[in-house]
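Write out the 3D structure for:
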Amino acid sequence: MRAYIISIAGAAVLGAVINMLSPDKWSKYISIVTGLVIAVSIGSPIISFFRSDVLSDLSFNTAPASTQGTDIFYRELRQEFERRIENDVKSRIASEFGMDITAEAEAATDGEGHITGIKKITVYGGHPDNIVIGRLREVYSAAEVITVADKKLSEKPE
């Protein structure tokens, strides 16, 4: 606080001395410049406040209090991912090979519940051959593709 007051007083005294030593026709210009210097001296704490990171000393706890909510979120995310893969497999096989099938996908996850890929795709109906199976492995990078050709579409297990 002391340095702040000294800088304001110093700017005022310096401005007054320069105003006394300068010619009279420069007086109003020197007064304007002196006023600006004093205003900047007064406003310097405000400027330094905006330049500093005000929130740097605060700490935020971003870890959830309970992992139950996180587990539910990852489970629902995995189910939605599997549902979309199943729909995509069905439409892809219908458009590329003309087969009416249903599919069941199982997502591969790590220990924390994050989806890492497709673990298994089970295809029901349509008598898919090795070309169809190879295409599914190519597109979805599935570790395992199982076909159940002799089951009807309605007999897909829950």
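Residues 68-153 form a domain with the GMP Synthetase; Chain A, domain 3 fold (CATH 3.30.300).
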